[in-house]
Design a protein that fits this description.
This protein is mainly alpha-helical. About 65% of the residues lie in helices and about 5% in strands. This is Putative hydrolases of HD superfamily.
């Protein structure tokens, strides 16, 4: 039991570092950037609150687990904004390889049974092929959009994002798992872009 607790607390000490990873998206009042731990916690709530919007076959509690751990890799890799480098950096092979290496390192701090479970959850989320992973990934795309809108534009301004870019890079991924949510979000954020000729 002592060895198991040592491993569990080693992991928990390591993931405290996620609180120091700054994201591109500001918090609601634009007073500072959001950190990755705040993002993950908020997404866990999104998964619970919006569970009635999920497609059949979605396990909302499994989605909560995915969302709590999905960005742990940013401890090593940092946040890679979806609109950076013209939208290509986020999904580059180099970033994906670095994130896999980070996931393996960080989850290996846990006892093997937990390490295997967390690695599998993380890989399922990244692949976004199961109904639950598609749901979780859609939430991960929706939350920054709503924060950017709430904060007056946030990283959309920083990265010169147009409506077409947002719809292609983000909207399509939200709509894949949560079409009703994307329709609701779109009606609220589209005017912000239209008012700026974007």
């Amino acid at each position: 039991m002592t060895d198991r607790l040592e491993q569990q607390f080693a992991f928990l000490r390591e993931v405290e570092k996620l609180k120091s990873v700054t994201r591109a998206t500001p918090i609601h009042d634009a007073s500072r950037p959001e950190n990755s731990a705040e993002h993950s916690w908020t997404l866990a709530l999104y998964a619970l609150v919006l569970a009635d919007q999920a497609a059949p076959g979605v396990d909302a509690l499994r989605a909560v687990k995915m969302l709590l751990i999905h960005d742990i890799v940013e401890i090593d890799v940092g946040d890679v904004p979806i609109h950076s480098a013209g939208g290509t950096a986020h999904s580059s092979a180099d970033i994906q390889a670095a994130e896999l290496t980070a996931a393996t390192r960080i989850f290996s701090l846990l006892p093997k049974d937990m390490a295997d479970e967390f690695q599998a959850l993380w890989e399922e989320f990244e692949a976004a092929e199961t109904p639950t992973a598609i749901y979780a990934k859609s939430l991960d795309r929706a939350q920054p959009v709503l924060l950017n809108h709430q904060s007056g534009g946030g990283s959309w301004i920083d990265y010169d994002v147009t409506w077409d870019q947002l719809e292609t890079r983000v909207g399509s991924k939200i709509a894949r798992g949560l079409p009703g949510v994307w329709d609701w979000v779109k009606t609220r954020i589209r005017p912000w872009f239209a008012d700026r000729g974007l």
